[in-house]
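Can you give me the bound-state structure? Components:
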Amino acid sequence: MKHLIDIMQLSIEEIDELINTAEDIIAHPDEYAEICKGKKLATLFFEPSTRTRLSFEAAMYELGGNVIGFSEAQSSSAAKGESVSDTCQTVSCYADIIAMRHPKEGAPYVASLKSTVPIVNAGDGGHNHPTQTLADLLTIHREKGKFDGLTVGLCGDLKFGRTVHSLINAMSRYDNVKFVLISPDELKIPEYLKASLVSKGIAFEESASLEAVMPELDILYMTRVQRERFFNEADYIRLKDTYILTDEKLVNAKEDLCIMHPLPRVNEISTKVDDDPRACYFKQVLYGKFMRMALILKLLEVTK
Amino acid sequence: MIIGQIKDGIVLDHITAGKGMDIYNVLKLGELNCTVAMIINADSNKMGKKDIIKIFEVIELDLDILGYIDPGITVNIIKDSELFKRKKLSLPDVVTDVIKCKNPRCITSIEQELVHKFRLTDAESKTYRCIYCESKARKQ
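Here's the bound-state model for the whole set.
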């Protein structure tokens, strides 16, 4: 039995396999409509999330399966002090696969140690969010047709942004990928990630200015400065509007730039940018559902 | 005071000067019934100064803890007043319940039953990271 806790658990070949399955689902949705009939997905969300939870649930429904679960810790036994491990062992008795979001880093890994069904990490604090990365990878694959040789700009909260960390790790495995890390000093990527890029000899540059690096980017991955990751409200207020993407800032961008965002957006991308053909963030949401469908099939070992 | 020769026991030699008491405490040597001798700032040709601990009984030692705290230690096991075995330590791959994860966002911060486990991720820089949240261990 396999779990997905960290995107790096998947080999490049496995990611290719998931992308191929997702492409097949997009091309032939009817052939997958009943494929998980009788199977149950449990969505255990100890932290509020609309997008990810609904994406998982929509994915399971579109495969013909059913969904059980909770959407906040207060409506689970966690409110009574039950451990993550106990909750997941219990839910393992009811469901065939578990998607879990938790505010504490490492919680899904703890769950996977005792669970008798596959655990999917649907986000653990500022740590990992592998299925968002799967959505990101399918978006890049569909928009650019390749992973090798791309210059990937990541902008905003690179310190606490788990989607950024997972995407950097995943894209680091492809040839000649360059990262451009755009953030204020306070929100730079963690030192361990930077050390990892250095040790692997992966090209990257850091910039405080989005406009300065815009012309070289193939991908621009915008992120939200998340209120819930700050202990101090004053720090959040000071940094939240640091980078806002507008039409003006895109003047010098490549014609085929792919603008991505894990969403939800607050104000870091002007709504005027939505009409730009280079804006891919809503397509990214759709691709996320298809990749979650592919992942559910893989972990449940269900084949067409 | 003369520290007698050990008949059966353990000599922890080449302890970095100043770390003897840390090791004494971590190994809970104060709870033993046998004689334990601590020599601090002994002259050493190799190290200049070193600490030495003599335990007058052969006990089970957690070599992972010792290796994590001070990988240069030599463990000499004495039987019938003769050197029976000499062990060189190395950095352990995993240490359990030696380092506490200080990341307030780590799952270990709310689940008290979880063991605090750290994995060696870079031997050159002696970097250990929490297996749950990947935070770097701070020397404690």
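A couple of observations. The first strand of chain B starts at residue 9 and ends at 16. Chain B has a mean pLDDT of 91.
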